[in-house]
Amino acid sequence: MNDCIFCRIAEGELPAQIVFQDDDFVAFIDIAPKAPVHLVVIPRRHVDSFAQVAELSADERARMTVFLTEAADRAGLTSTGYRVVTNHGANSRQSVFHLHWHILGGALLSDSM
Ligand code: DGP
Question: Ligand 1 center to residue 57 CA distance, Å?
Fold first, then answer.
């Protein structure tokens, strides 16, 4: 059994509040939100973190960025704005080792990154 939490969410083996998905990417509500709207966006294909993004094809990387904008739009964030963050490694406090992007919005965010 795959013990990656985000792979299991992508496979439908673990529940998540999915807001948008296609064949290659999934956007769902973060379980511990840091903003009124906090989405997690993942590629279905497992990549450990942003440092390994080259393991995705150029086409996947291009579509991933467009998917991020689409997910933010579906969450109603385009007009008011949002922040996109990805964490890699210990100093960033990455806790789930499957590449993911945080989309944060729904309020005026902290000016500290
Ligand atoms: P990071 O620290 O960048 O690795 O962020 C991981 C995020 O994933 C963190 O904000 C909490 C979220 N998360 C962890 N486990 C689950 C889960 O089982 N379901 C959901 N929806 N989010 C999760």
Answer: 24
